[in-house]
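Hey,

The postdoc asked me to send both predictions to you directly instead of through the lab channel. I've kept everything plain text so nothing gets mangled by the mail client. Protein one:
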Amino acid sequence: MQYEDLRPYHFGFSVGLHTQDFLIQHSGLQDAEGNRWYGNVPNYTPGFSVGVLGDLRISDAFSLRLTPCIHFGSKEMDLFSDAPDTKIERVTVRSNYIMMPLLVRYRGARSNNYRPYIATGFSVGIDAGNRKNEAIELTSLNTYWELAFGCDLYMPYFRLVPELKLCIGLDDIFQHHRPDEASQAFVNYTNAFDRISSRLIVLSFQFE
C-alpha cells in the first residue's frame, strides 16, 4: 500500500471495548436528619463499541476525521451517607452513548509499515439508555473533549489501526430538578451532588 496515504479521503469501520466512569463533585448538604450523602463508582465494567469513520486528507501529516460511534455499556454507583452503620445502595446506570466526534489527526513519518499518530477534537454525545424513576437520573445531551493515540499498521489490502482514546465530558449531566422523585431517598441523592460529568476510555480497532 505504497500510495495509500495520497488518497484525498477514505472510509472504514471500527469495533472495540470501553469503560464508563463518573467524575463526581459533592455538595456537602445535609438531609433532614443531618447526614451527608456521597456517591462513587466502585468498579469498572467493559462495554462494547462500534462505529464508522471518514478521513479527509489535509496534508501529508494532518487529516480531518469524523468517527460516529455507539458505546453500549453501564456503570455501577454506590450511594451512602456518613451516618454510623450506613447501608450502601448500589445502583446500575445504563448508558448507550451515540457520539459524533470530529478530530484533527497528526501522523508521524511512516517507517516501513507503521505510522503512529495523535488526534484531538470534540464530540457531541446523546445517551439513549436513560431511564426515568431511577435513583440517579442523567441528562441525555453531553459534549466531550477527546484525545487519542494510535498507529496505522499497513496490511496488504487494508490498514489496521489500534487506537486508545480518552473522552472527557465537559457538561454537568446530573438531573438536579426532578418532578418524578418517588421517595425521600431520591431527594437525598439529588441534593448530594453539585456536578457529575462523564468519562470514557475506549480501545478500538479500526479497519480502513
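Protein two:
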Amino acid sequence: MLEFFKKYRLFFGVFIVLSAIILSLFYSALKPKKTLPIYNPADVNPELVDSTVQYKSKYHTIADFSFINQNGETITQKDYEGKIYVADFFFTTCGSICPKMTTNLSDIQKAFANNPKVKLLSFTVFPETDSVPVLKAYAKKHHVNDAKWNLVTGDKKEIYTMARKSYLAVKLGKPSELYDMVHTENFVLVDTKKRVRGFYDGTNKEDIKRLIEDITFLSNE
C-alpha cells in the first residue's frame, strides 16, 4: 500500500489541490452575496411615518432640504450629493439617549475620517432652543469635524416633514401641539442615490458595528 501511494503521490497531490480549489469555488458561488434592503414608507413602523406617505411601497428618496448648520451655513441636498450618510434626530439638552447617540456618531466619524464619501447629518427636534451658537458649542464639545458632520436647525415644520416623510424615523409627540416630535434612537443610513438603506439603534454598540460594516459595503459597491 505504501509503495502504491509513493508511486502515485504526484497524482494524489494534484487531486487534493484541485479538490480544494473546486470546493472553494463552489462555496463562493453558493454563499449568499451581501445585500442591503431599500426601504420605503410602507416597509417601516407606521408610527414613524407621516400618514400621507405610509402607502408608498417603492421609489422613495430623501426630499430636497435647506437648513442652517453649526457654522451658520446653509446646508442642502447638494452638500450630500453622491455621498453615503447617516442621519439622526436629537436635541442638545437631551440627557437620556442623546449622549450615547452622539458618542456613537463620533465613533462613526472616526471610522470614516479618511473616506470623503461618508458624512453625517444631525437634525435638532428643538430648533426653538438649539440656535446656531448652541449647536456650535455642542459641536465643539463633541469634536465634530465640520467638513464631515453637520448639526442643523431651522423651521420646525420643515424638520418635522423631513423626519416623518423622508427619513421615516421620528414618532409623534403630543397631539395637542402642532408638529411636536419625539426623537428616537434611530440612525438612518442613506446611500448615494438618496435612498434609505437601513435603520440602526444609535445607543447600541452592536448596531453601530453593523452600521459601520454596512457603510463600508456601500462604499465598496
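Summary for protein two, as requested: The chain has one domain: 41-219.

Thanks,
C.
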